[in-house]
Amino acid sequence: MWQYSKGRALGTLSARIILFLGILFFCATHLYSAKSDLVYNPAYQDSILKNKSDSALWTTLHNKATAYHAMPGYVSIQQQRQNFKSQAFLMVFVFIVLLLLVFRMLFEDYMFSLLEGLGSIKKFFIFYKTKKYDSFLAIVFIYTLKVFMSSLIFYGVVQYVFKEDFNVFNMHFYLNSCLVFGSFFLVKDILEYIFNVITNTQETFKAFFLQNMFAELLLSILLLFLLIIFVYNDHISNSVVVFLMVIGFVWYFLFNVIRSYQLIDNVRILHKLHFFLYICAFKILPILLLGKYIFKNMVE
Description:
The chain is mostly helical. 77% of the residues lie in helices and 0% in strands. It has helices at 2-30, 47-51, 53-66, 88-106, 108-119, 121-129, 136-163, 171-198, 202-232, 238-267, 272-298. It starts with a helix and ends with a helix.
């Protein structure tokens, strides 16, 4: 009897222990579960499961194991291709610089006389009287350089103002600009020379013509360098380039005004009113006509 009671007691104790362990197992698997769509008590949410650090670690290891096609140490990101500027602007610029070097080698004395004559009106008249500026070939060379540079500067300004795109270079438009500028300057200067021959003032015309041509050559070189810097240097501010160009035009205007008065005192112009009408007819009006033609036929 005692033995039977003892065995029954042990069985009851074992059943209670099993029941208690089952309750603990149930609590361990349900009370401390991860966040789900069901209602839960945040106070009992495990911090490790909340942050999911083990899942993040497993994801990282899995990505490293399966990323066999990726290069080690590099990030596989495809960069967008940038728009590159057209190299034709630089090629034309190099061609013009080569022409300047040829001019420097062929007409060395003429070039130094040109620079000294721009710096001093006295030296200009000394060279003018001694026939140092009478080289017709040098004048044609400067004329051609001025047309090429003026056309390229005009083309760059048109591209920036109307299209804002230097990725494509329209050679047809550039050559057409050279033709228009060359024809304009040639016709204007021939008509002006004929007028001065008729009025017996060709010496006055020659002095003014040389001074303007030399000043326009230096201004064109300055503006051309600024244009190339503006096209190929993205780090320079647009306002800086515009400011330098304005300074160049202001210098050109002041130089022409001052030298005009200096030439008037030396060349002895008798009728100042006739001279004023001459300036309006051969200097101001042709520029206005050229501007009207450009905006009507060349600029879209």
